[in-house]
Write a structure and sequence with these properties.
heterodimer, A: alpha+beta, 2 helices, B: alpha+beta, 8-stranded mixed β-sheet, calcium (chain A), Archease_dom (chain A), Archease (chain A), Protein archease (chain A), metal ion binding (chain A)
Chain lengths: 140, 484
Amino acid sequence: MQRKPYEVFEHTADIGISAFGTTLAELFIHAAQGMESVMVAPEQIHETMSCAISVEGHDHIALLISWLNELIFLFDTEYLLFRSFEITAITDNHLEGRATGERYDRERHDLGSAVKAATWHEASIERRDNGYQARIILDL
Amino acid sequence: MGNKIPLERVDANRWRIPRHYDKNMHVSGMVYADDELMELILGDNALQQVANVASLPGIVGHSLGMPDIHWGYGFPVGGVAATDAESGVISPGGIGFDINCGVRLLATDLHYEQVKGRVENLADVLFKRIPSGVGGDGMRVLSRDEMQSVMLQGAGWAVAEGYGVPEDLEMTEEQGCLQGALPEAVSQQAWARGRKQLGSLGSGNHFCEIQIVDHIYDQHAADTMGIGRKGQIVATIHCGSRGFGHQVAEDYIKLAESKQKDYGFELPDRQLACLPLQSREGQAYLGAMKCAANFAWANRQLLMDGVRTSFAEIFGRKARARDLPLVYDVCHNIAKMEEYEIDGEMKRVCVHRKGATRAFPPGHPALPEKYQAIGQPVLIPGDMGRYSFMLVGAQGSMEQSFGSCCHGAGRRMSRTAAKKAVGSKELLEMLEKKGVTIRVHSKNLLAEEAPQAYKDAQQVVNVVHNAGLASLVVRLKPIVVVKG
């Protein structure tokens, strides 16, 4: 059976995403899609501009949290929402990628929740037979 | 979930989590709740988090849970932990993402009778003057120099810029500025996030509310605060350091997490990652946290100016501090270096208040002269449909809880569950029936904050009152709510 790229789950504090990927790069892309979907449904986001992203982390979880937090940073400072992602290089401690989307528009985008941070609480990345599974709880 | 944890009843309002529950606990846990609240608390894993916090190196006294406690990240929301200033640690997650999230209340000399015909108008003006929601700039976009001044001077910077009067500073915890802020310990990303957000509410549970004094428990204390008339109009602002504080928290949680092995720390939750207080990194976090705390005080000062100006626009007042004086401003996500008697000895500790309010008793040297006789005003916002409370700190807080008490009603439903439980249209109608006028940017976000998503704040404040941590002064009912 085809695994879902991501799912959003409920948590007493807030909300979480679980993501699946056959490779680490795919896992990171799906996690980013999951997080953006908590804010605005992907079909509402036009792909009009893109940003290069480069982050560091001391392990895979640190790298994933940094990647998600970088997207939140771009939403918080430039009001950017993203729909598609590309990862050009990924190692244990470093990631280079690109996110494509557009500026948030109060009139056109139906904001579900405003994500403020990706947290370390119960954060996990597990190696599965056919890929990787990650769980991240988001601060709203 | 939480019911695996052994709980020993201490008295009607306190429960102990014994140290033997988990070998990693250095101290026992102490949770404040009556029977009904304990039922709710057992519904999530907050008690396990109280136990987890007890494993922080250098923790002293108890790992404390206030009656509004609920599951947070690492630390529970509604948690208090004090660590030894010399041998202990500071945990950035134990302060939280929204550094110096807090509440301030200002009084007016208006009575509900004078306001009731203009409530809609007032709501519109507040909504226009107070930036809220996501995707917009704050009241003031800062240059680099200005940003640095905000970090170093806090609310004092705002007053010098004309947002308020010097008397406001006296009525603010720490006079609206923590000394020893280190802008050089703040990342470029945090600078970038803070620059455009000063003077904005943001989203989530932050709000500006116009309330009426609905019930008076302690007339003398209420009169001292200038809120002693039933039907009197007051305004409450709940907000923090916005994206700036979040970035500082993120940066230092990540740094602490990468150093846990070096320091030989093994904590049960990665979000608890901590730094020795006396280490270079621990001091850098403390200095950066102070920058964010000061930013938050300046932010609430600007927002308050927006409220004063709105009242002036509607009621033709000049909105001088004398007409709308600040009663008090408290923070509820912060770490403070304070001194307490522990086992008969005075000890300097770092008090982490994660969703907990300072509640100093009468006579405490940190209080302004005005409140020396009654104790520190303690503002406890409830939910937007029922009520909020003003209390004053009591002697018990010094003996039991490192000068702390609860901070709000506390969630009983996740944000997702709240949205499922009540539709935004239904919620707006329900609030309207209760006489609450709402102005909000995102109706989806409003449902996350539905009254039924919260515990009953009255039950929560009754516990801290009965436990002797703080005592009730007035109850406030909302009439206007402005949110993101």
